[in-house]
Amino acid sequence: MVTALLMTPGEFPGELAETFPEACAALDVAPAAHGYGLILAQAQDGGRWTQITTDASGVSSAQSIWNMGLVCGYQPPEDSVVAIRPGWPVECVLGLAGLGEPHYPLDPGESVLRPPQRGTPGRRRGMSTGGKSRPVA
Fold first, then answer.
1. d(C-alpha 30, C-alpha 44), whole Å
2. CA-CA distance, 137 to 49, in Å (whole number)?
3. DSSP H/E element including 67
4. Cβ–Cβ < 8 Å for 86, 105
5. Per-10-residue mean pLDDT for the chain, 137 residues long?
6. Beta carbons within 10 angstroms of residue 15's beta carbon
């Protein structure tokens, strides 16, 4: 995981749309009162993908911890993931060290659309890698 964003009726990325229902439509999910969390991640080859979870409260908790300057991982409960999309819906300048060059897959295959296996060490944001992060192009 590179980072996580909230997408709730009260807080959503303005780059997606001007209203929450429009932002949901941009990601092809139905508007939900509890909202969603957007997990921006990179595959091992550097391919970008977005995991959409109904666990907005879990994303909010992780963000609170990050905002205090602490490191923590976040992995949504498996049954809360409603969609996985290739690419990132918003611009993000963070990236993870040690992976392939960040890119948007031209032909997203199964490997790009699958998140890392559970049980792999959680990674917070690229910036927590001791300065080894690199900007995402």
1. 30
2. 14
3. helix 56-67
4. yes
5. 86 89 93 94 80 94 90 88 86 60 56 40 37 36
6. 10
- Domain boundaries, given as residue ranges, for the chain: 3-128
Order of all β-strands in the sheet with 36-42: 3-7, 36-42, 48-53, 81-86
Burial of 44 (0-12, 13-18, 19+ CB in 10 A): exposed
| Both structure tokens of 26 | 């941009």
Beta strand extents in 14-115 (DSSP E only):
36-42, 48-53, 81-86
Query: What is the spatial distance between Cα 83 and Cα 15, in angstroms, rounded to a whole number?
Result: 19
